Amino acid sequence: MNEAFVLKSVSRGVATLTLNRGDKFNPLSEEMLAALQGELDALKADDSIRVVILAAAGKAFCAGHDLKQMRAQPSADYYKKLFNQCSKMMLTIQQMPQPVIARVQGLATAAGCQLVAMCDLAVAASEAKFAVSGVNYGLFCSTPSVALSRNVSRKQAMEMLLTGEFIDAETARERGLVNRVVAAGELDAEIGRLVDSILAKPAVAVAMGKQLFYKQIEMGIGAAYQLAGQTMACNMMDEAALEGVQAFIDKRKPAWSN
């Protein structure tokens, strides 16, 4: 198949990556993971990109790992390599300076649910559904549990992991897995509102803040406050922050170049 696994489009500093195996529910095969990794690495180093949207073609957002591909190569070394490849891609989403928004138009299961959880923000269509369903096939969703447990409460995460049952989009919003739920026809407009709000802020503050957020959340509270204080001091010395504070004092809009 010559068709690209991931499609990329760019407009006004916003890059959209679209999983392009809609006929197969966009599984995270070796090829899909490699394609995503390559695109994310390139965007991570591109200062002209301010926001990344992760979307998908077809009815499903992502059905998780390609189980047929996995079953065809039953070796511990292969599985370790595959899951390391997946974990690297997931971590890249958090490590890149740009906010990443998941555009969830349909089903997100197992590692697909993990993919939603690893994005900084997520907007879902009302008909979208979510599950970490590996346990239904004898495979506990261990790696998805890492992302899931950092989005929803422990007991809610464990219920999903132990039962493999689906939750609807509104339940996902209530539990903190997604930010907003809208009708399918309003998905792009709602994401556009989020994007516009982010683009109106200084890129340096957004990038610095994202990096700090994920670092401090894994720390004890004392170390977290120390790191946050250092980050704010560095942020305050940046021209964008100095201009923003002066604009507040002058009661005018900041003149940011971004």
Characterise the protein shown here.
The chain has 258 residues and is an alpha/beta fold. The protein has 11 helices and 10 strands. The strands form 2 sheets. A 6-stranded mixed sheet has the order 1-2-3-5-7-10, sandwiched between helices. A 4-stranded mixed sheet has the order 4-6-8-9. A hairpin with a 2-residue loop joins strand 1 and strand 2. The mean pLDDT is 95.
Number of helices: 11
Distance between the termini: 40 Å
The number of strands is: 10
Strand content: 15-25%
H/E series:
EEHEEHHEEHEEHHEHEHHHH
Mean pLDDT: 95
Largest sheet: 6 strands, mixed
Order of strands across the main sheet: 1-2-3-5-7-10
Spatial extent as radius of gyration:
19 Å
Report the uncertain regions: none
The percent of residues in helical segments reads 40-55%
Sum up the overall morphology in one term: globular
Helix and strand content put the structural class at: alpha/beta
